[in-house]
Amino acid sequence: MGCDGGTIPKRHELVKGPKKIEKVDKNAELAAKWKYCALSQEKLRRPIVSCELGRLYNKDAIIEYLLDKSAERPNAEAVAHIRGIKDIKELNLTDNPEWEGERRNTKGDRYEDIHCGMFICPVVGLEMNGKHRFCYLQTCGCVFSDRALKEVKTEICHKCGDPFKDEDIVVLNGNKEEVDKLREKMEEKRAKAKTKKSKKSKATETVSTSESKGEAMGEGELCSVKERRGRVTQRRDKSGRKRGKPAAPQV
């Protein structure tokens, strides 16, 4: 029954120490962010969209969510800030010629690069696999590496030629600080749009009110003119002549 024959147990065999903290596999974490939809957890497939916080989604998953927000989803908090189709942007991605997709050989008879990304930067050729910082432009949806935007500074998109500004750049799958900045930027943008909309509605109400007042005043003036004409007509019928005009001399 154990400890027979004079064996002495050691301390670590009798006393259980604290459990070791399981470390998160960085490769698995990168694959989850850059190869899987943040909402459905399915593999990313075209068309791929992104929100104002830089998360990646399958477009069909977002459409299903918008059609039925009441359905229970395990990652619903990842899309809580998406109100409609205008809050997402379809990405214009550049395919990686070295990506073999599902046809990749997994029998172990050759080396398999698990860091190979599905897409690359069209300017410098870096793979979009989580090792390099990538961004997209809210104006056109084109995706580039951060290195390309910094090394080749321009106000025109490298891929489609559309103009853009620095505030149109959104970091994809950024860290916590970058996501917090993007969230502040998103809330500020929505607040400005809401204020602008309320001012526009007030201006429309003011114009409609002034027009209705003008119409009422016009109707009042028309009525007063009609009354004055009626009075003049009555005077003519009584006197047989216009007011202020001398009568014809009697013979």
From TrEMBL:
Pfam families noted in UniProt: Rtf2
Stretches for region Disordered: 186-251
One Gene Ontology biological process: DNA replication termination
Chain intervals with Basic residues compositional bias: 191-201, 228-245
Family statement: Belongs to the rtf2 family.
Alphabetized InterPro entries for the sequence: Rtf2 (IPR006735), Rtf2_RING-finger (IPR027799)
Encoding gene, per UniProt annotation: RTF2
Highest taxon of the lineage: Eukaryota
Organism: Astatotilapia calliptera (Eastern happy)
UniProt name for this protein: Replication termination factor 2
GO cellular component: nucleus
